[in-house]
Amino acid sequence: MSALALAGCERAAADRAATRPIAKVNGIEISAQRAPGVQALEKIIDRELLVQMALREGLDRDPRVLESMDDARRQVLAQAWVERRAAGAGKASHDEVRTFYADNPALFAERRVYRLRELAVSAPAEMIDVLRSQAAGATDLEQVAVWLKSRNAQFSATGTTQPAEQLPLSHLPRLARMKAGDIAVFATPLGASVIQLVQADDAPMSERQAAPVIEQFLAGRRRLEVAAAEIKRLREAARIEYVGEFKR
Predict the structure, then answer these.
(1) What are phi and psi of 169, to 5 degrees?
(2) Of 114, 126, 112, nearest to 160 (Cα)?
(3) pLDDT by residue (tens digit) across 185-238?
(4) Residue 153: count of CB within 10 angstroms of its CB
(5) Domain boundary assignment for the chain
(6) Is the dihedral of CA 83, 89, 93, 99 positive or negative?
(7) 150-192 pLDDT per residue, tens
(8) In the CATH hierarchy, which fold is given to the domain comprising 112-202?
(9) Angle, vertex CA 18, rays to CA 16 and CA 19, nearest 5
(10) Beta bridge partners of residue 25, listed in sequence order
């Protein structure tokens, strides 16, 4: 009983600490719960100053602002409902974690840190195959850039160093097979990504090291699956009518 009482006191103390004011902006209090750090607090102070000016000028009564506020409120409510439904899905099992680890060696057991040069190209889908053919015969990314300029294609060039988990999962099997100097072309929603591998360093993760990352990923995927299933169920039960031109 003493232990329970102590735990209750500690929770109460934590709650009081979270709700205590840590700053005031023209008399409006900001609690510790809203600002977990100094940088967050400064951003909240800036936002509060802007909010106060907006309220002073009556923007909270502007029809467009009211519509945006209602949209934001509905988005928060919808997300909160999905989170509540997904909370009952349970944590990923040890077998699920182990299977995911084994199925994705490029992310874990054979994980690498990639140093890359990239051309992000805005291009129509029909140009991607031509771009692949051009890149296949190139020995340097600059040759591809010159060819793109001759076609008046829009593109930007960047260099980056990223571990495997920060790259698109669909790119990893190809990147894992590439050697320094190799060039690959990946389709993107806006066109293509032309990547030249500069260097790749091995940086494997053990199953134990990867477990928290995998659990978080599987939990996120499970939330998406729950959301999709619930939306499908709700649509089937609802009466949805399209009006005007949207009837088609």
Answers:
(1) -60, -35
(2) 114
(3) 999 988 999 999 999 999 999 999 999 989 988 988 888 888 899 899 999 999
(4) 18
(5) 14-61, 112-202
(6) negative
(7) 988 899 999 999 999 899 988 999 998 999 999 999 999 889 9
(8) Chitinase A; domain 3 (3.10.50)
(9) 65
(10) 28
Q: What is the three-class DSSP state of 27?
A: coil
Measured in degrees and rounded to the nearest 5, phi and psi for residue 190 equal -100, 0
Pairing outcome for strands 21-25 and 112-122: unpaired
Closest CA to 197 of 144, 156, 160: 160
Q: What is the four-CA torsion angle of 222, 224, 227, 231, rounded to 10 degrees?
A: -130
Per 3-state DSSP, what percentage of the chain is helix, strand, and coil (rounded to 5)? 60, 20, 25
Q: What is the CA angle 56-60-62, rounded to 5?
A: 110
| pTM more than 0.90 | no
> What is the separation, in whole angstroms, between the first and last Cα of the chain?
67
Instruction: For strands 183-188 and 154-163, give the pairing.
Output: unpaired
Which of 38, 58, 57, 66 lies closest to 30 in space, CA to CA? 38
